[in-house]
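Dear Dr. H.,

I hope your travels went smoothly. While you were away I took the liberty of generating a structure for the chain from your last submission, since the lab meeting agenda had it listed for discussion. I wanted you to have the full record in hand beforehand rather than looking at slides cold. The sequence, exactly as received, is reproduced here:
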Amino acid sequence: MKYALFSGCTIPLRVPNYELATRKVMDKLGIELVDIEDAGCCGIYHELINELTHLTMAGRILAKAEDMGLDIMVMCNGCNESLIKANKKLKEDSELRDKVNEILSDFDLQFKGKVDVKHYVRLLYEDYGVDKVKKKVKIPLNTLKVAAFYGCHILKPTKIIEFEDFEDPESLDKLIEATGAKSIDYYDKKMCCGGYVLAYDKDAAYDISGQKLQNIKDAGADVIVTICPFCNIMLESNQRAIGSHLEREFKLPVMHYPQLLGIAMGFSYRDMVMEQNRVRIDPKLFEE
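The corresponding predicted structure, in token form, is as follows:
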């Protein structure tokens, strides 16, 4: 299996441990990742400002992957939605496609609609297979209770993403349980982390994330597992600030899914760049 890797903007700048862990785990699984050179941004933040700008930025990435002859793997829920939405629009709307291709011609690129975009969770769940993931586990995490945090744009909008039912997803839960850990249920599991509200109303964003953290803590989770960089930033990087805002303390460790899987596959803490996680994770959590 071979994919063009699009790491986006937030991951390399703010959560590089996510990318490093993902690369090592995918390599161990036998999934080859090839970087899209000079990829730039997926254009998600331009979507509501100027549609043509969004489609051109996303179309440029899609066209580069087409030239590589590879489907795209993403690690960010926002990039997932942005690229899938642009891919669908450009395939279906010839007028928009012609406008975008006119701009892309300046870069010797052309969108042809020949590649698909998949978040690595979807890739592992649909293409690689949960049973195959399970066979790669060397150290089952049998005593670990994990709160799966899907985020929004790996699933929504459902008519565009066409992956799972947002009301009853199971992919991440099953991939967590492939490590031997227990994926626990908790109140408001499918709700947003509040990240998209942060720039407009920090207090509201912190209230949303704080309620989510409290619900997870009340459910008895040992660790939260995220699959989106911004969800991770909200729940881990901002956890202390959220606690101060709400005058409470959470101390909830947060891991990227590849870190969890990597530990179960036998990678060391250093291999999974766990020292960069903001909330300290006690190694005893992973002992039987």
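Two observations you may find useful: The first helix runs from residue 10 to 14. Residues 144 and 285 are 7 Å apart (CA to CA).

With kind regards,
E. W.
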